[in-house]
Amino acid sequence: MLVSPVLLPPSSQFWTQCARQIIGRNQTEAGLDFSALRVIVPAYEHAQWLINAMSAQLQTNFIPPRINTLSAWLALQLPDFNAPKVVSESERLMALYAQLREHAWLKKIFAARKNTDLLPLAQTLITLSDELTQAMLPKVVSGSNGELNAQQISQQIAPQWHQALAQLPMPAQELLSEEAQLVWQIWTSQLDGQDSVSLRFGQMMRLADAAPDALIWISPVAPEGIEQEFLTTYAQKQSVQLITLDWRSSALEGIFCQSWPEIVEPEQDAQTAQDQTINKPINQFSTIGADSLEQEAQLGAQTILDWLQQGKTSIALIAQDRVVARRIRALLERAKVHVADETGWKLSTTRAAAGLAAWFDVVTTRAETEMLLDLLKSPYFQPPTMALLDEKTNWVMSIELALLRANIVGGWDSINYALEAQPECVELVTQLKRLASQHSERKNLSEWLELTRQVLTEFGMWEQWQSDSAGQQVVLLIEQLGLDCAHLNELFSFSEWRVFMNLQLENTAFQGDKQDQRVVMLPLNGARLRRFDAVLMAGCDASHLPSQPKEVLFFTNAVRRECGLITLEQRQRQQLRDFTELLSANPEVVLTWQRQQRGEDNPLSPWIERLNLRLQKTSLPTLVEHNVQLADLTLSTIATVQPKPSAAPLQPATLSASGYNSFIACPYQFFATRMLGLSAMDTLSDKPEKRDYGGWLHAILKSYHDTLKAQPELYPKPKQEALLRDISDNYFATIVQKNPAALGFSVRWKKSISAYVEWSQAFMDAGWQFQEGEIWLEKNLYWADGQITLRGQIDRIDSNEQGEVAVLDYKTNQIAALKNKLKLSEDQQLPFYGLLAQTEQTPISSAHYVALEMTKEKMADVSADNYLNRQQDLQESITHSMSAIGRGAALPAQGISTVCQYCEVRGLCRKGAW
Which Pfam families match (predicted)? Predict the structure, then answer.
């Protein structure tokens, strides 16, 4: 029989009172042997609480009752071989999705732009179906064995369904007609006895029919739906005792009843909550108001550290605001305090899942460079094919540098072209391309799982995951999905497979190490019936307490209420009861919140405000501010001074024109970039930049002039422009194929071709003839105690009949800017090239900047004045400067603002701080 429930007040003595109830009711029957008694608790943690409480009461050895959770007890039962096989949640999800994607009107109703947008809808519909099953299944079972009767469904449930919809206003009924019909059809189709809820209920009812032991059911909430049906059936053969929390006003502190009257259960024979005597709360609770998220986390972490130093051994961190709670956890772990996380974070946020996501990104984007580099840099990516190479960091870096220098945005062929000098890396990319190509066809889930396992094995990730806790859970998830979806034959595209895997990773919680239980992070409802020495609740502002519920589709509270589903009010009420129990059962509770968010006032939780208001009205002290002092750290002050490093051992062996220009602009910049080698890496750009345009023109013009020099008789003046256009078209055709954004530069150059040919012909008429282009040269400079090698690439060298030699440098600038550049005499590029190219027999008599941008429909060049003198001055300057570096001269940071504005080592010299 079902004994009247025992109601115990929410307090720190709950388990003590619970133990007294069990002992008082059963000790006289069997002495100290309680093994004939079956006790069901909400979670495994509660079993230890109950045993400890019974031990404290009995003060002697005893045989405890058999304590289980309901799930564990059901798992101990013999399987019913006649029962239908359970269909896994993943198989249900994809089977339903396969049906939904066939109906175009669904995408229109739910604004789905593509099929995969319906996958979250399918998941929501299954969740809603399970809710309806939980509430209505007891009404449609036939007999007591849990079998379903389709006729009873239509006879009993359909009228209730339509009655629920009839509670809505007529416009809402019209609006919801299609959606309501969809939910009804999905639910009735899911109610086939193979879903986990139906099979669990059938197993519960078979257990209730057997009723092997007297039962005590301990729960913080009253049983509803299938649980109530189970207990009612069980009580027909065995005694059933229900122990739950007492929410009558007589069992609660008066201050809570009057502050939050909605938590109180109606009483007929007891005085109302408003007539209760209000006393000071038994337990101590206070607040911490912070000015920022970081301050809230710091004060919260310091509070927990203070509690640990005081000797508290059981501390709860309630993660009402998960972001703040995670930050508190990070600060505690920095202080060597482990936090046992019972909230669990999504498996999708782990590094192991990120490695899988990186591969999916590579396939989806067809090898965008950033996605490919993310995959290669994954700590789990260890392909056996690269085992013979140097350390992974080296070959990944070599791939990255090659792609950045070539500005390869993506594409398998473009990447292989950029890596052609590294055949082993080309082999790796070819392997990735082969595996990615296998993702183009539609497959069933078993085939997708097998392909994913094959890919991960070839990458070495499957093996690497075995030594990582998060990786092990991803492996288990994939293996379990293989078992769950083995019988689903529908075909899915790669995009559908990817969204499905993302949902599985998103819905699976990663569980970390829980060996150290001194500090436990858990959600508010996870603290039910648990007791701690102290509790810190993070995120007690209006936006987090109460937490905002997620609406399920279009279901209004009216429909949910009529269908017997949990309503918004019931969720809010239960959450407030959980909060009340937390305050009632724990001796010290600190509530933290942020006074401001994003520059605006952030109000405290209305529940706490109501409590404070009631305390004020009853002349009791309001919640006090928790006093916490952050630990002081004394740092010695070091004045920041202008850096003036001296590094004679790092004197460079080679020097380029750009390097010496860097030295002239700022010696410290030269020290950092050329001597220490700290130059920033190139960045990828999805659009060609001016430097790319310049490189293309250099290659085109070299090909043009080489052709003219080799076969001048084939290209007289009238044909020279056609030749340059042909070379340009062929070159840009390849470039545009790889990067369509280069088309604008192609058009820009085509407009300039005639002007260039005209300038080139005029330069030839002045007596100059093209000799060679794009020449790499080296030359040694010596002084008394050292030497340096000058290096550089000269765009073009011309000569005339008098034996004079000129160097030319192409610039994609206007002629006015080049004239100003030479006038200021700050740029040493042309004199440097003269030094580099001259010999004792062939001095370089002139140098020219050639502007490849038209000015008034023409191109022009500008020559350097006093060129021979400038070369001599430059040689003396280089000799003096480099020898001074070798003798230990200081290299101060003394760049002007125009130099510092774009300097890549500005963060090293800290200009502005000295």
Answer: PDDEXK_1 (PF12705)
What SS3 string covers 632-683? Answer: CCCCCCCCCCCCCCCCHHHCCCEECHHHHHHHHHCHHHHHHHHHCCCCCCCC
- pLDDT (0 to 100) of residue 226: 87
Chain centroid to CA 193: 38
Beta-strand runs (E) in 414-531: 509-510, 519-522
Cβ atoms < 10 Å from Cβ of 688: 21
Q: Could you say which of 475, 507, 539 is where a domain stops?
A: 507
Domain count, the chain: 5
Residues whose CB falls within 8 Å of the CB of residue 598, separated by 6 or more in sequence, listed in order: none
For residue 169, the tally of other CB atoms under 10 A from its CB is 9
Contacts for 886 with CB less than 8 Å, ≥ 6 apart:
648, 651, 785, 786
- Per residue in 60-73, pLDDT (tens digit) is 899 999 999 999 99
Which range has the worst mean pLDDT, 79-83, 90-94, 150-154, 729-733? 150-154
Distance CA(83)–CA(81), nearest Å, equals 6
C-alpha 147, offset from chain centre: 45
Reply yes or no on whether the pLDDT at 238 is more than 70. Answer: yes
* Number of separate helices (H) and strands (E) present in the chain: 37, 24
In a domain, 637, yes or no: no
The DSSP bridge pattern shows strands 534-538 and 315-319 to be parallel
Q: Which residues 6+ apart lie within 8 Å of 583 measured at CB?
A: 256, 281, 283, 285, 589
Q: 568 is in which domain, residue-wise?
A: 284-344+514-625
pLDDT at 175 over 50: no
Question: Does 733 lie in the same domain as 839?
Answer: yes
What is the Cα–Cα distance from 791 to 808, expressed in whole angstroms? 16
Give me the amino acid identity at 510. F
Interior/surface letters 452-463, b for 16+ CB within 10 angstroms, e for the rest? beebbebbbbbe
* Same domain as 66, residue 96: no
443 and 376 in one domain? Answer: yes
Quick one: tokens of 593? 């919140």
Chain segment 438-483, per-residue pLDDT in tens: 998 999 999 999 999 999 999 999 999 998 888 999 999 999 999 8
Same domain as 233, residue 170: no
**CATH code (residue 495):** 1.10.486.10
Q: Are residues 736 and 604 in the same domain?
A: no
Q: Is the pLDDT reported for residue 496 higher than 80?
A: yes
Tokens of 833: 């090239």
Q: Which of 752, 726, 776 has its CA nearest to residue 851?
A: 752
pTM higher than 0.70: yes
The pLDDT tens digits for 878-899 are 999 999 999 999 999 988 888 8
pLDDT at 388: 55
For 151, the 3-state DSSP assignment is: helix
- Measured distance CA(174)–CA(168) in Å, rounded: 10
- Is 527 part of a structural domain of the chain? yes
Residues 146 and 106 in one domain: yes
Q: Which pLDDT band holds residue 914 (cuts at 50, 70, 90)? A: confident
Domain boundary, last residue among 507, 530, 560? 507
- CB-based burial label for 262 (10 Å; 0-12, 13-18, 19+): exposed
Q: Are 684 and 407 in contact (CB under 8 A)?
A: yes
- Say yes or no: 460 and 317 in one domain: no
> Is 33's pLDDT higher than 90?
no
Q: Indicate if 555 and 673 belong to the same structural domain.
A: no
Tell whether 304 is covered by a domain. yes
Quick one: pLDDT at residue 782? 92
- Counting every residue, how long is the chain? 914
What single-letter amino acid sits at 137?
Answer: L
